[in-house]
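Because discrete structure vocabularies remain unfamiliar, it helps to consider an illustrative case, giving the amino acid sequence and backbone structure tokens:
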Amino acid sequence: MAKNIDGLYTESNEINKDNNIRFNSESQNHNSTQHSDAEHDGNHQSGDIPPSEVFPVLLKGLGEHRELTFFHYHLIDLPVILYDGEYGLKIYPSVNSMNNAGIYTLDHNTHQIVKAKDHHQTPALDLSVTSLVVFQWISIVIVLIAFIFGARRYKKGENEAPRGIQNLLEATIIFLRDKVIEPNVGGKHISDRLLPYFIGLFFFILLMNLFGLIPGGHTATGALGTTAGLALTALIVINATAIKEIGLGNWFKHLLGGAPWWLSFIMIPIEIISMFTKPFALTVRLFANMTAGHVVLLSLVGLIFYFKSLAVAPVSVAFSIFMYALELLVAFLQAYIFTILTAVFTGLAIGDHSHGVEEKHAH
């Protein structure tokens, strides 16, 4: 098929050279795009990828996809769910069915869904299921199954020593409770109430990180949308906990940062910016660390195809193995850092009032 397309394009070029047919500027741009796609597909099918395209092709797998694949094997098309004031709610089983409907189309340059009538306007809301969303669901299911299994083991043998997955979960939970959450959020009463959230947060991030290290897998935390969603929930938990524990009045007093009231016009804007800077830092830190490691790892592998020489392979593979081991460490480390920073920010939002709150609940 690629050869036929290239032949048609060559023939059209000859016609253009003979000036037998004139194309307007819009048709020329459209034909140019078709030729570029056909040439790109032809190169991929023949396995002859130009050196300049090696790294873009490898790094393309890091983004979101509207199909579920394992390496180059297509597994399943993912549904496209769109909402717009002009067309209402539209649900398509795949991108191809969406294109055939003629209302929306996928822009291959920006990889965004746009309206077919102008190829510029995007739908108001894109709720489509992507490959990264699927891996988030898989992480949630695995966490639920693991904890349900562990809870049943405890109910069956309350006096028995934990073993297997039960022992692993218990050791991790005790470590998070005693070393991460309770020392930072401001007391046992608060940590016990927030313990389910922090445990779920840690294991959810950890599993999403680890899935990116499985050959053919995808790292959901390598998308800004995922890390931003996690940071947004952290922002809500931090401030909701602070308001509940110290009261709305004391929470507003924190906006002064301990300064006199006549400096409120300076301090309040600074504190509000600081309030949103913390979740922003959580978002970028997790996204950047998980993405950077994968970029370096794929770039090292890409050197073999870039230079087209097996002499590069030993060095490339050796550094790739080292980076893979480092990525494994980073997967655990970033889940730990996100969890402990959320706990620290919660404790800072509560402030010195946490000791009074703890004493009140102790009585």
